[in-house]
Write a structure and sequence with these properties.
Elements lengths: L2 H19 L5 E5 L8 H15 L3 E5 L6 H8 L7 E6 L1 H8 L11 E16 L8 H10 L5 E4 L5 H13 L4 E4 L3 H9 L5 E5 H9 L4 E5 L25 E9 L4 H14 L3 H9 L4 E4 L1 H22 L5
Parallel strand pairs: 1-2, 1-3, 5-6, 5-7
Antiparallel strand pairs: 3-9, 4-7, 4-8, 4-9, 4-10
Helix pairs in contact: 1-9, 4-11
């Protein structure tokens, strides 16, 4: 056997050994967003299932702040051994364009493990705003440029940029009212102080059913099963508009390929568990699994897409 062959065989053996040895200690899933939020709930649903599959402890560690960048930076600097993972969402690739001095690279500092779920934002209006469709909202905004307010969870947030993309695509001018968090934004939308809002399905579906808000459209290219009568914004007249809210798992760059493959496979297996599926759907979340390569391509495309939106809006944080 040649020396090169010996080295390759040793490398293959070490990779296989690493995968078989993982996990050697409890696995920590860092959620860089607040407890009880869109990312936190599914992370806590998946963690015990993964722990049961692995026969090891798997726990969630919330490290929110600075648009998800604090928790992401913590994972980027963690040992790349599969024991510290990042459970994050769409803001991960948006923050990459908003913060001018991030201590990590949103793509290069991580290895994609899996897309876990995806779904729409819902465009809702308060009933006091006398519009019943996307077309009517656009007409009202064109009649009153810059006079109709929309709420977001903060400057540069996903909600801000999803709405900015909508306004740009529709050719209208809406007035941005940023809040310190989605809870405050929703409170003022429900109170009618701000009339327009984009939010995740779990945050608005009951308010829509109760008549407190009116749903005009969903941001994905397909209608949402829980709101089948609500059209997509594209089919409602804004051709080409699409914005997806997604959840994923990442690992620090340098994590061995064998561990990446195994972690991703375990996530895929967990997402087939009937009880996990039931809990996720009860939380308004639709599993949508993609493995490392497919998800990596998806995340790069999303990174470029939101970069264009940020440049068009001129939004920055620091």
């Amino acid at each position: 056997m040649t020396r090169v062959a010996v080295v390759l065989a040793a490398l293959l053996w070490s990779l296989q050994a690493a995968a078989q040895a993982w996990p050697a200690k409890p696995v920590r899933i860092v959620v860089p967003l607040g407890a009880g939020g869109f990312a936190d709930v599914p992370a806590r649903i998946l963690a015990p299932r993964l722990g049961a599959q692995l026969g090891a402890g798997v726990f969630v560690d919330n490290r929110p702040g600075a648009g998800s960048t604090i928790g992401a930076d913590h994972v980027a600097k963690a040992e790349p051994d599969g024991h510290t993972l990042l459970f994050t969402a769409t803001p991960h690739v948006i923050s990459a364009w908003l913060y001018t001095k991030l201590p990590y690279d949103a793509l290069k500092s991580f290895v994609p493990l899996a897309l876990i779920a995806s779904g729409p934002y819902v465009l809702v209006v308060h009933p006091d705003l006398q519009v019943n469709s996307v077309a009517e909202l656009i007409a009202a905004a064109k009649a009153q440029p810059g006079k109709i307010d929309y709420a977001s969870s903060g400057n540069g947030s996903a909600q801000h940029l999803v709405t900015a993309l909508f306004a740009s695509t529709a050719g209208i001018d809406l007035n941005h009212v940023p809040y310190k968090g989605s809870g405050q934004a929703m409170q003022d939308v429900l109170g009618g102080r701000v009339k327009v809002h984009f939010a995740g399905v779990p945050n608005v579906v009951n308010h829509v059913r109760g008549g407190k808000l009116r749903a005009l459209g969903v941001t994905t290219t397909q209608r949402w099963p829980d709101m089948p009568d609500v059209p997509t914004i594209a089919e409602a007249g804004v051709a080409g508009y699409e914005a997806t809210l997604w959840l994923c798992m990442l690992a620090p760059a340098g994590t061995p390929e064998a561990i990446v493959t195994r972690v991703s496979a375990e996530i895929g297996k967990a997402l087939q568990d009937p009880e996990v599926l039931k809990q996720l759907r009860s939380a308004g979340i639709a599993p949508s699994y993609l493995g490392p390569q497919e998800f990596g391509a998806f995340m790069r495309a999303e990174h470029e897409k939101w970069g264009r939106v940020v440049r068009a809006t001129g939004a920055t944080i620091n």
